[in-house]
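Quick note —
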Amino acid sequence: MSYTSFKNIAIGIAFSPTLEANVSEAARVSCMFGAKLSLIHVGPRSDEKISIIDQYIGNCGQSQLSYEIIFTEGDPVGVILETVKEHKIDLLLLGALKQEKFVKFYLGSIARKLTRKATCSVLMMTNPSVIRKPCKHMVVNGLKDAHTEHTIETAFYVAHSLGSNQLTIVEEIEQEKVSIKIDDDQSLRKANLLKEKLKRQEELRVQGILSHIPSDEKKDIQVSTQPIFGQRGYSIGHYAQIVRADLLVMNAPKKSSFLDRFFPHDLEHILNELPTDVLIVR
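Predicted structure written out below.
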């Protein structure tokens, strides 16, 4: 298996109204992966802050959790990224708003910047909760990309760790691949035949990936595939929302350029209006 197991998990925390929910969620997730948790706070250290965090972790019943609180100063993005490298973090948890304002889409919030620049996988939590909400159904991208097999393999590992029993692999097919002008029955039939051919090709490709995954990793998980036509990123996000998926798993974006801020790649469509919790796999 080529996935990287999550043994060191971190979360950036602020002493805000969502602190208890973020700490509770991070503690549970870390225990489910059997990981150590690092809580990163950009701000001055104090006994009161430490007492509050200890209390929240105690309240969520994760007494077996191994954790440390890291206090640091400086630019939030820079110091969190540096801490992730220094402590060899495998998974960074981020609380996120479901919708960000148009201005933030271009200027970038702290969460968006961390998502772009982190050297580890990132889990964006849209609704962190003090009381756990089960993760039952996961949707995973199945797009044609060198990184996709790694992402799908990691998704099975995550599904077992979180207790998910349903995994849907979505193959996004760009609508432009069926660019046939439909003006009569013959052209309609031609377009439909082409769509079916593309669906079969995608199905064979994904089944090839699944054949490489040991049967033990697929045990007790209902696996299905779903080809959809549309704009990459937007289509799978919409699908995840429609089926009420609990987690959407995506490839990490390739190294971004300045133009990505004005002509976003497919992942930006999802980050702009998070349909559910999103795991970005590196």
